């Protein structure tokens, strides 16, 4: 099988592998050779794979994984960090990715709150103008 992990700026991994383990919202799963075509959204997690002589790891900031008919596995992600030390990736990198995702969610909620307040204010001004007879 061929594994490619791609971010918007760089191809992080492009190598032949024997097996892969990844995680989506339903849990952890594995991919072996001749797997059926498959598409899933990956969680912020660590993907691991085996080659003939090593096991490797990559921390992902979410993403999309496709398994093609020709035994190709493509992972598109916003950010990826490879490493051979699972403990370091898990404790440092993955924790940072999760923190960043939480911060982005908080910022998104705050932006939505500001937009709703602005809309509410505009609607109240329009209603006040309509009640005063300005808009006929």
TrEMBL record:
Subcellular location: Cell membrane; Endomembrane system
Signal peptide: none
Record GO cellular component, one term: endomembrane system
Domain called ATP synthase F1 complex delta/epsilon subunit N-terminal: residue spans: 1-79
Organism encoding this protein: Yoonia maritima
Keyword set includes Zinc-finger: no
InterPro entries: ATP_synth_F1_dsu/esu, ATP_synth_F1_dsu/esu_N, ATPsynth_dsu/esu_N
Entry annotated with the keyword Metal-binding: no
Family: Belongs to the ATPase epsilon chain family.
Key words of the record: ATP synthesis, Cell membrane, CF(1), Hydrogen ion transport, Ion transport, Membrane, Transport
Complex and partners: F-type ATPases have 2 components, CF(1) - the catalytic core - and CF(0) - the membrane proton channel. CF(1) has five subunits: alpha(3), beta(3), gamma(1), delta(1), epsilon(1). CF(0) has three main subunits: a, b and c.
Membrane-protein topology: Peripheral membrane protein
Biological role: Produces ATP from ADP in the presence of a proton gradient across the membrane.
UniProt xrefs under CDD domains: F1-ATPase_delta
Entry protein name: ATP synthase epsilon chain
């Amino acid at each position: 099988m061929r594994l490619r992990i791609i971010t918007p700026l760089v191809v992080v991994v492009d190598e032949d592998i024997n097996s892969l383990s990844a995680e989506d919202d339903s849990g952890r799963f594995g991919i072996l050779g001749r797997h059926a075509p498959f598409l899933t959204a990956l969680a912020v997690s660590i993907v691991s794979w085996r080659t003939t002589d090593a096991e490797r790891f990559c921390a992902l900031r979410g993403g999309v994984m496709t398994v093609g008919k020709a035994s190709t596995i493509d992972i598109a992600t916003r950010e990826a960090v490879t490493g051979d030390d699972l403990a370091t990736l898990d404790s440092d990198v993955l924790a940072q990715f999760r923190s960043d995702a939480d911060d982005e969610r908080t910022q998104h909620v705050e932006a939505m709150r500001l937009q709703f307040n602005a809309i509410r204010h505009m609607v109240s001004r329009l209603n006040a103008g309509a009640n005063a007879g300005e808009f006929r």
